[in-house]
C-alpha cells in the first residue's frame, strides 16, 4: 500500500532519527535507542518495564481499531505481530503528547494512552479511508532515504495507477459477460456505474469488498432500519466505509451506545441518511463531544434531540472547533447552550471566515455588540447566511422600508425570508393599502392572515380618521 507523504505522521527531530535507525540497525540496538531518545532533547530514559507496558497498551488499542474496521480477531492478531515498527511509532505518539508527565516521573493511565492514540488512528482513517494490514505491517513504507524532516513523496502516477486498478474492477466482466457480483447488486439498488467509480476513486478499497461478507449485510441492515431503497446509494456514496465495518462487533454496538446518549432509535433511518459517518466514529470520540455538550449546560434530553436532528455535531473537534466557537458567541452575550440546541450548524462555521464578518457587518451598520447578540439569540440561523447573497441585499432593501433599525433586533428572522418572493411583494401590498404593520406581521403571517391584518389595519385607520374629523366638528366619536 503506497501512502503519500507518510512522513507527516512520523515524529520529527530525535524520534525521526530513531525510526531511521530502526530500519537500518539490529532490533535490540534500535530498542535501546528508542528508550533513550526524547522529543524535548533530554536524555532521561523511559524504564524498560514501563516501555513494555506501553507497547502492550498500544497493541490493545490498535487491535480494537483494526477489528472496528472489520478484521477478525485472528487477522488483527497476526497483523499486530508483524508491526513492531508501527507499534513503536504509536508509543512515540504517546510520549510526544504526554512528555511533561515523563519529566515528573508519572506513569500514564490506560485512559490517557487511549486518548492519545485513538484520535490519531481516526485521523489516519479519515485521511486515507482505510488503515490496512499493509500500512501497519510495512510502516514506514517506503523507508526514509532523505533528511528525516523531508516528506516522502510518492509519484502521483503510482497513486493514480492504484486508483485506476481499483476502478478498472468496476467495469471488468467475466467470460459470461457479467460484472462482478457486488457491482451488479449495487446497480440493482439504483446506483450507476459512474457513482460506483466515483466512490472507488475516493476510496479504492470499496472495489474489493465482497458482496456476501460486507456489502449485502450492511445494505439489508439499513433497509431493516427503514432506510428507503432509493437512499442507499446516497448513504454509500457519503460513507462507503460503512461496508467495511462489522455489523455484530461494531455497527450495532455503536448504535446501542448512541441510543444510551439519547438518539431516538425510531429515527435511525433519518440519522444515518443525514450523517452516515456517525457510525464509524469511536466511542471515545463520541464521548468527548458529548462531555462538551454537558459542559456547556445542555440537558440529556436536549443532547439526544441534537444528535438525532444534527448528528454532524459529533464530527466537530472539541478543542479546535466547538470550544472556540462557544467562546466567541459568549463574547457577544449569547447563551451558548440555547444557541447550540436551536442551530448547531453555527458551530461548524469558521470564526474568521464566517462569524466575524457577519458580526462586523452589523456593527458597521450601527448596532451594538449587545444588539448583535440579541439578534443571534433570537434567530440562530442568522450566521449561516451568506453576506453577499443574503444579508447585504436584504439590508439594502430594509433601509428603504421606513422601519427603524431596532425592528431588526426585534425580528432578525427578516433575513430568513425570500427577498423577491416574500419581502418585496408583501411590502408593496402594504404600501398599496397605505398602512404600516410591524415587521413581524408583515412577513410571518400566512397569506390569508396577512390580508386579514391589512383589512383590520385599514378599517382602524379609517375609524381613526373619522373620529378625528368628528372631533374637529364637535361630534361624538363612532363606536369601533
UniProtKB/TrEMBL annotation:
Protein name: Transcription termination factor MTERF5, chloroplastic
InterPro entries attached to this UniProt entry: MTERF (IPR003690), MTERF_sf (IPR038538)
Organism per entry: Acacia crassicarpa (northern wattle)
PANTHER family in UniProt: CGI-12 PROTEIN-RELATED (PTHR13068), TRANSCRIPTION TERMINATION FACTOR MTERF5, CHLOROPLASTIC (PTHR13068:SF9)
Record's keyword terms, sorted: Transcription, Transcription regulation, Transcription termination, Transit peptide
Chain positions covered by the region annotation Disordered: 461-480
Coiled coil: none
A GO BP entry: DNA-templated transcription termination
Family: Belongs to the mTERF family.
A GO MF label: nucleic acid binding
Keyword Transit peptide among record annotations: yes
Amino acid at each position: 500500500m503506497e501512502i503519500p507523504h507518510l512522513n507527516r505522521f512520523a515524529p520529527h527531530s530525535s524520534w525521526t532519527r530513531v525510526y531511521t535507525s530502526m530500519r537500518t540497525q539490529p532490533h535490540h540496538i534500535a530498542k535501546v535507542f528508542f528508550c533513550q531518545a526524547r522529543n524535548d532533547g533530554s536524555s532521561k530514559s523511559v524504564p524498560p518495564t514501563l516501555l513494555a507496558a506501553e507497547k502492550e497498551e498500544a497493541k490493545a488499542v490498535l487491535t480494537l481499531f483494526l477489528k472496528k474496521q472489520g478484521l477478525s480477531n485472528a487477522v488483527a492478531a497476526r497483523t499486530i505481530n508483524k508491526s513492531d515498527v508501527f507499534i513503536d511509532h504509536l508509543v512515540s505518539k504517546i510520549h510526544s503528547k504526554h512528555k511533561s508527565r515523563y519529566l515528573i516521573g508519572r506513569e500514564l493511565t490506560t485512559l490517557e494512552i487511549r486518548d492519545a492514540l485513538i484520535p490519531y488512528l481516526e485521523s489516519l482513517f479519515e485521511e486515507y479511508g482505510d488503515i490496512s494490514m499493509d500500512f501497519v505491517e510495512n510502516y514506514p513504507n517506503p523507508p526514509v532515504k532523505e533528511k528525516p524532516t523531508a516528506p516522502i513523496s510518492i509519484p502521483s502516477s503510482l497513486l493514480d495507477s492504484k486508483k485506476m486498478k481499483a476502478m478498472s474492477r468496476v467495469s471488468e466482466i467475466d467470460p459470461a459477460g457479467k460484472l462482478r457480483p457486488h457491482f451488479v447488486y449495487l446497480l440493482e439498488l439504483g446506483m450507476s456505474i459512474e457513482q460506483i467509480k466515483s466512490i472507488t476513486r475516493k476510496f479504492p478499497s470499496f472495489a474489493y469488498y465482497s458482496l456476501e461478507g460486507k456489502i449485502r449485510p450492511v445494505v439489508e441492515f439499513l433497509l431493516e432500519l427503514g432506510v428507503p431503497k432509493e437512499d442507499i446509494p446516497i448513504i454509500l456514496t457519503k460513507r462507503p466505509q460503512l461496508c467495511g465495518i462489522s455489523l455484530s462487533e461494531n455497527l450495532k454496538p455503536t448504535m446501542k451506545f448512541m441510543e444510551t446518549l439519547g438518539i431516538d432509535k425510531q429515527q435511525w433511518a433519518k440519522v444515518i441518511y443525514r450523517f452516515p459517518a456517525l457510525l464509524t466514529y469511536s466511542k471515545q470520540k463520541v464521548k468527548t463531544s458529548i462531555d462538551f455538550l454537558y459542559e456547556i449546560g445542555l440537558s440529556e434530553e436536549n443532547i439526544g434531540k441534537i444528535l438525532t436532528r444534527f448528528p454532524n455535531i459529533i464530527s466537530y473537534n472539541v478543542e479546535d472547533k466547538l470550544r472556540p466557537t462557544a467562546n466567541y458567541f459568549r463574547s457577544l452575550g449569547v447563551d451558548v447552550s440555547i444557541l447550540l440546541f436551536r442551530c448547531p450548524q453555527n458551530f461548524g462555521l469558521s470564526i474568521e471566515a464566517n462569524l466575524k464578518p457577519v458580526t462586523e457587518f452589523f456593527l458597521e451598520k450601527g448596532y451594538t455588540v449587545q444588539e448583535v447578540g440579541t439578534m443571534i439569540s433570537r434567530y440562530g440561523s442568522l450566521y449561516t447566511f451568506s453576506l453577499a447573497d443574503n444579508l447585504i441585499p436584504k439590508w439594502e432593501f430594509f433601509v428603504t422600508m421606513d422601519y427603524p433599525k431596532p425592528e431588526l433586533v426585534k425580528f432578525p428572522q427578516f433575513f430568513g425570508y425570500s427577498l423577491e418572493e416574500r419581502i418585496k411583494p408583501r411590502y408593496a401590498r402594504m404600501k398599496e393599502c397605505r398602512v404600516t404593520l410591524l415587521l413581524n406581521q408583515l412577513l410571518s403571517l400566512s397569506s390569508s392572515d396577512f390580508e386579514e391584518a391589512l383589512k383590520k389595519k385599514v378599517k382602524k385607520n379609517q375609524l381613526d380618521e373619522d373620529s378625528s374629523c368628528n372631533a374637529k366638528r364637535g361630534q361624538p366619536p363612532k363606536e369601533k
